[in-house]
Amino acid sequence: MARYVATRRNSPPALTPVALDASSIAASAALVEAARHRLRRAENLHRRSTVLIGGALLLVVSAWLTISPRAVEASTFAACVAAFILAGSIEFEIGPGCALPTAPVQVVALFLLPPQFVPLAVLSGLVGSAFVARLRDRQRKEHLLVLAGSAWHGVGPAVVFAIAHVSGPRFSDWPVYALALSAQFAFDAVASWIHTCCGLGVPIRKLAAALRFTFLCDLCLVPIGFAAILARPGSPTALAFLVPPTLLLGVLQSDRRRQLDETIALGAALTNTSDLARRDPLTGLANRLAWDEATGEVQTDDASIGVVFADVDGLKAANDTFGHEAGDRLLRAVGEIVVRSLTDISDARAFRIGGDEFAILVPGASQSTTDELAGSIRELFDHSPTLDGGIAVSASVGSARVPTGRNIDRAIAAADRGVNLEKISRGVRRRT
Fold it and tell me: What are phi and psi of 233, to 5 degrees?
């Protein structure tokens, strides 16, 4: 059955691995990591959906037990709950949620318990497994309503068994069993959709992929439960037949989680490496490699693009007179001004594309926006204080804008000409 993303342990935020041959694996791992991280925001983001499906489950179970009171052997009920706790402690993280191998236990419980007690046993098992998980991870938080919302998969088959008055396992009743399994899938899918898609905003295609995996696993596990109850009909000892396969799944789950953690860690390392390769270590801005990639990407864009260049004035003089440490301070000061000029332009990106050259890309920019940005940079330089030693923080600025990204080369050439003209007009030599 499916578990919601809210019932996840605390973990670092989601990562976005760089493109590799194994990019689909890395993307899946990042999706799992995002599901783990959502627990920190769960209470505020999906409280309404939690109250809706969790509260409704508690009301349905309470009403059913009140309307149709029946006696149940405490030992049998306790055995079923213990089996649910064992199976519920094995979580296979799948995309935005996880799957629990409780299907065989539910099959046995359907034949051992009155139908109205099956959802209660499922819920009790989820509460018990959550308690066990809390002992392992003190940061884990799972509220009763969240767990109740995860127990809806037990209602559908219980209703089918109650209507069909199933008394014992018989091969001739296979249509009833098929209907019960279909009801399990339907109830689980609807509850997961409300909680995950409506409550958390997870795209339905991602939920569908996770549910396909979960339901396929259930189809494979259901025969194990049916075989157990056939071996010991009417006896809670049938649950003992489920222990070996459940423990095997636990071993597989532990290994899978280790692999997921390693993949997530690898994704983090690759992301950091990729970022370092595209970042100028002196100014912290994107470097020439990032610039080449960005300009290559916009060449297929039909939107307009603005380009602003800033070429540092007097860098060679600062290096020759005061040393390269002073030149580095000048470059950092210029980089800070370039970044400060972008405060009100969210889509713009700044780059250091050469020793004393800085550039800005402004996707979707109008001519006025590009001109105003260039003017803002000039004004910031005009009012910038000198550095220690009297080094002026200034740069010559050029700008251009083209109607489509396909003409980015024209904009780059025009902005570069603008820098040269400003250098000439101010009597400043451009370093070659």
Answer: -60, 135
Domain ranges of the chain: 2-274, 288-426
- Summarize pLDDT for 102-129 with one digit per residue, the tens: 999 999 999 999 999 999 999 999 999 9
Indicate the burial class of 137 (C-beta count within 10 angstroms; 0-12, 13-18, 19 or more).
exposed
CB atoms within 10 A of CB 292: 13
pLDDT tens digits for 265-281?
776 666 666 777 889 99
Quick one: which H or E segment has residue 411?
A: helix 408-426
Report d(CA 26, CA 262) in Å as an integer. 10
Nearest to 155 by CA among 338, 1, 319, 282: 1
Residue with tokens 């009403």: 63
Contact 126, 147 (CB under 8 A): yes
Q: How many CB atoms neighbour CB 94 within 10 A?
A: 22
CA pair distance 102, 246, nearest whole angstrom: 9
Tell me the HSE value of 104 on the side-chain side, using a 13 A CA sphere.
26
What count of other Cβ atoms lies within 10 Å of the Cβ of residue 368? 10
Give the C-alpha distances (Å, rounded to integers) separating 80 from 174, 224, 241: 23, 15, 13
What stretches of 89-203 show up as alpha helix (H) in DSSP?
103-112, 118-136, 144-149, 155-164, 174-192, 199-200
CA 92 vs CA 103, 106, 252, 271: distances in Å: 14, 18, 9, 25
The correct CATH number of 288-426 out of 3.40.50.410, 1.10.287.90, 3.30.70.270, 2.160.10.10 is 3.30.70.270
**DSSP string for residues in 118-134:** HHHHHHHHHHHHHHHHH
Non-local (6+) Cβ contacts of 173 within 8 A are 164, 166
| 8 A C-beta contact, residue 359 and residue 395 | no
- Is pTM beyond 0.90 here? no
Estimate to the nearest angstrom the gap between the alpha carbon of 32 and the chain centroid: 6
The DSSP 8-state label assigned to residue 197 in this structure reads I
Cα 16 vs. chain centroid, distance in angstroms? 9
Q: In what order do the strands lie in the sheet with 92-94?
A: 2-3, 97-99, 92-94
